[in-house]
Amino acid sequence: MTEASRANLEAGCVLDFHANPSAAARRQAAWRDVREAAGLWRLGWTLAWLDIRLRYRGSMLGPLWLTLSTGIMVAAMGGLYSVLWHLPPRDYVPYLALSLVLWNYLAVLVTDSCAGYTQAEGMIRTVRMPYSLYAGRIVLRNLMVLGHNIIIVALVDLLLWSWPGPAGLLALPAMLLWLADSLAVAVLLGAVCARFRDIPPIATSVLQMAFMVSAVIFRPQTLGDRQWLLAFNPFFSVLEVLRGPLLGEVPGVGIYASAMLFSAVLCGMAWLLFVRARGRIAFWL
Amino acid sequence: MTAPLAFVELAHVDIDFPLYHGNARSLKKMVVSSVRMSADARHRVVVEALRDVSFRLTSGDRLGLVGRNGAGKTTLLRALAGIYEPVSGRLRVQGSINALLDPNLGMNIDLTGRENIMLRGHYHRLNRAAIARLADEVADFAELGDFLDLPVRIYSSGMLIRLGFGLATAIRPQVLLMDEWILAGDAAFMAKAQARLEDLVRGAEILVLSTHMPEVIRNWCSRVIWLDQGRIRADGGPDAVLDAYLERPTV
């Protein structure tokens, strides 16, 4: 076990806790937590992958069940609503497929984040691990699920030949924004829900409401001249900066401004809370 | 490349557990008088787990912790492991830490033995080859055989404790923190575990061991701290402190 011991030595961690630390010391500790989590990315990746494997252990299709159920959902809803709203399926089904897949990611991410630290109680109490690693694990796990579901979007694009075109490149910066927001959501909700156990049900109902009003299954154009209202809905603008380009549309400046502003507020809040609450999470469980 | 010498230093460390969940007030009525509770500045009910704990350990020190159940031994070990951050005072630890606090040590019982070993390997930042060696070595020690690739949930309790023990003792730290579970086990297993544990203890620069067994402390420790209601009641050589501790009036 010489190698193990050497690796362990090199990791050589020094704990230094002050009570009532200064704001700067807290920031340093939070920053160190993030750096340590980044150094343990392989652990985060393995944890996320095992989470998924565990969920589908013993099933024949495994994670492809996700793909299948999303596919059935898209086919059923796409068929129904394009008739209900008199929309050409060639136009509506790719929109619906993408919206549902992205929304599904967002919704599960929020629910998972709420349970983030409370579920990991056993681990938090027995081994010292950077708290941001738990957030990273949740985001990675949901990205893996997204990776399975995105197959449906590609399949729809292939069947209806509705590829996004050059505007699709704008999705790349939007993905970075989503990544940052996802980590912020996982950290923020994880910590808040560990302390206040009433938040998870609230988050669930907010999500349900947001699903209805955020132009996930209906086209924003159907709102007519009241479309501008959507820019004040953070769920919509953040969704649209990624969805628009993937549909070959360029989102308006207002949508971009709104998405960036809301993301900045979200990330800022998450960081401030993490700096403040990190050392207390173990006591809240 | 040599790591700096390990040390552990606590200065006036306090740890409180706030009671947020459940009805703190009715809970307060229920708890026996031996639990130390008070209200903090913001009128929250807190359990005072550790109060004004100060000591310093340097390389070569072997510290035993004694005290009744609930005296704060496990909380102190968790604080040393960096899990609980003190609310007052200062705590510093230099050196790599391995804390054997719980037989399951965060093991996921739905995962296979091999997967749990892999997770531990990643936690200690081992590479693929080292993880494979770790798996072989631990499976060999724990006598898992084909069970290595089956979920830990179906292991016998003996296999489970052997796996937990084998895994926990496979990583050699500078600062070794042990709770007493590690010394529990059937006689046949203990004989096998003894050599491995002694090897680990010898390899560590600092040992902190919490136990109810006086003979273990006399064998292994060079210093003993007696915790009582979260405070240090006595601190000194094993014989002096143990004698006082064992003669204490039973409450």
Describe this structure in words.
The complex is a heterodimer of chains A (285) and B (251). Chain A is 74% helix and 2% strand. Chain A has 285 residues and is an all-alpha fold. Chain A has one domain (33-267). Residues 1-12 of chain A have low confidence and may be disordered. Chain B is α/β, with parallel strands linked by helices and 251 residues long. In chain B, a hairpin with a 2-residue loop joins strand 9 (223-228) and strand 10. Chain B is globular. The model of chain B is unreliable at 23-34 (pLDDT under 50). The chains are: A mainly alpha (285), B alpha/beta (251). At the A-B interface, helix 1, strand 1, helix 3, helix 6 and helix 12 of A face strand 1, strand 5, strand 6, helix 3 and helix 4 of B. Strand 1 of chain A pairs antiparallel with strand 5 of chain B.
How would a textbook summarize the main sheet of chain A? none
Going by helix content, strand content and strand pairing, the class of chain B is alpha/beta
Q: Using the CA coordinates, give the radius of gyration of chain B.
A: 20 Å
Q: Specify the helix fraction band of chain A.
A: over 70%
Quick rundown:
Chain A is mainly alpha-helical and 285 residues long. Chain A has helices at 2-11, 23-39, 41-55, 64-84, 89-119, 121-126, 131-160, 171-195, 199-213, 234-246, 253-277, 281-284; one strand at 14-18.
Keywords:
heterodimer; A: 74% helix; B: 251 residues; alpha/beta; Rossmann fold; 10 strands
Summarize the SSE layout with pairings:
The complex is a heterodimer of chains A (about 280) and B (about 250).
Chain A: H1 2-11, E1 14-18, H2 23-39, H3 41-55, H4 64-84, H5 89-119, H6 121-126, H7 131-160, H8 171-195, H9 199-213, H10 234-246, H11 253-277, H12 281-284
Helix pairs in contact in A: 2-7, 3-7, 4-5, 4-7, 5-7, 5-8, 5-9, 7-8, 8-10, 8-11, 10-11
Chain B: E1 7-18, H1 24-30, E2 37-39, E3 45-58, E4 62-66, H2 73-80, E5 88-94, E6 97-100, H3 113-123, H4 128-142, H5 157-168, E7 175-178, H6 187-203, E8 206-210, H7 214-220, E9 223-228, E10 231-236, H8 238-246
Parallel strand pairs in B: 4-8, 4-9, 6-7, 7-8
Antiparallel strand pairs in B: 1-3, 1-5, 2-3, 9-10
Helix pairs in contact in B: 3-4, 4-5
